[in-house]
Structure formats: C-alpha cells, structure tokens
Amino acid sequence: xxxxxxxxxxxxxxxxxxxxxxxxxxxxxxxxxxxxxxxxxxxxxxxxxxxxxxxxxxxxxxxxxxxxxxxxxxxxxxxxxxxxxxxxxxxxxxxxxxxxxxxxxxxxxxxxxxxxxxxxxxxxxxxxxxxxxxxxxxxxxxxxxxxxxxxxxxxxxxxxxxxxxxxxxxxxxxxxxxxxxxxxxxxxxxxxxxxxxxxxxxxxxxxxxxxxxxxxxxxxxxxxxxxxxxxxxxxxxxxxxxxxxxxxxxxxxxxxxxxxxxxxxxxxxxxxxxxxxxxxxxxxxxxxxxxxxxxxxxxxxxx
Length: 303
Prior knowledge:
Elements: H1 2-52, H2 66-73, H3 75-106, H4 113-121, H5 128-139, H6 144-150, H7 165-190, H8 194-202, H9 207-218, H10 220-235, H11 238-245, H12 256-265, H13 269-302
Helix pairs in contact: 1-13, 2-13, 3-7, 3-10, 3-12, 4-7, 5-11, 7-10, 10-13, 12-13
C-alpha cells in the first residue's frame, strides 16, 4: 500500500513539474508578443490619454475634461461624427448583407462560379492609387458616368462635389470589401453540418427555412467578425477620400479621419488626442455589444 502511494506521489510531483515547465515555457514565448503590444499599442494609447488632459504638449498644464468639451462642441467634429456615423450605418450593413447573399449564391453550383469569385476578389489586388484613378475617371465632371447619363438627356454633375458624394464613396467601399467578406462567409458555410441540412430536407424544409433555422445560426460568429472588420474598414475610408478630394472634401464626406488629420497638421495635439479617445471609446463599446450579441446567439445554438 505504501509503495502504491509513494508511486502516486512521485507521479503527481512529476506531473506538477511538467505543468510548471510548460507554463514557464509558454510565458517565455509570450513575452515578445506582450512586449510588442505594450510598446506599440498600450503605451501610445496611454500617451494619447495623457495629452488629452493637458492644455498643450509644451506647457503640460492639467485641464481635466476641458479638451473633451471643446471637441464635442466643435462644429467640424460634429460634422465629422455625423458623416462617419451615416456612412458606417449605410455601408457596413450593405457590405455584410451583399457579401452574405453572394456567398449563398456561390455556395450553389452555378455556371462560371470560379470566374465570378475571382472577379469579386480582384479589387483586393488593385493598388489604392489605381482605385482612385478609376473612380476619378468614372465620377469626374467629364467622367464616364456623366457621358452615359448624357445619352439619356441627364445633365452631368461633379459627383464628388455634390450631395451624391456619399453614394460614390459607399459604392467604392462596397466594391473594395465585398469580395473579402464573401470568402469568409463561404468558408463558414462550408463548415455547416451537412447531416442536419439533409435531415431538414427529408422533412420537406425549403431553402429559405434551412437558411434561417440552420445556416444562419451557424453563421453568427462569422457575421459578427465580418461586421467588426467592415466597421473598422469604414473608419479607414479616409485614405481613398483624401486621395480623391484632399484635406477638405465636400461637406457630406468630411470624416473623423479628416478632423484628426487636420488637427495633426495644425499641431493641435490636445484636441486630436481628445477626439481619438472619444472615438476609441465608441468603437470599443460597439465591438463589445457585438461580442455580447454573438455570445447570446451562440448559447442559444449550444442549447
């Protein structure tokens, strides 16, 4: 009996030592990643928060939330928030919905399926400068779109300097991002258990019912991920707008990134920092809400 207990004790000690070595080994391998994240993400964010509560980077007098009040009351910031919100509310749902519909279409064995998929992915390989050139050729005052419209007796306009500018940018955003989102949805659709679908078909369930009752529930995680990525990309549309219209575009496409960029150029770091902190808080809030929604639907699926 004593020999058995001694062997068990030695086995536990050996197992504990193995666990300890594994834990220390994983910790050592994590140190470079943690250090990199701290150096390039966490520490700079703390510096931004620090600047947001100072009167300026040189005087370094603490002013509390004064900069935040100034930013919120700033008319340019209000316009930028409104335009960014409107753009995201239009572009992100469209990007998710259209890419999902295309994925469902290509999930079936339709003619020219491979060529169609390649065509939708091609915008990912086009450089930004080329994208801007294409859109200038299409939507300039003397561009291709106006030439086509003139054939039907419609007077052409300078699209990027009109109320339709936001429509042009939404089309650009969709053209650029739908292909990538579609591939993510196609990968998710391929992982849906086929035996469940076959059972549903045997019970005379139609395609619409199978989608909403089975496929959609398995796509929740992918929908949340695609939504988050599309939301982040919608905040990065500044690059294309800037190349098309420079620092001060038409009022309807003046985005938050324009506000940040212009404040940086004028060395107004305190306003820039306060605006960046507010924007990050809103983004984190939206992402947390999306993850909570995913968690809720995932529990429902597991149940």
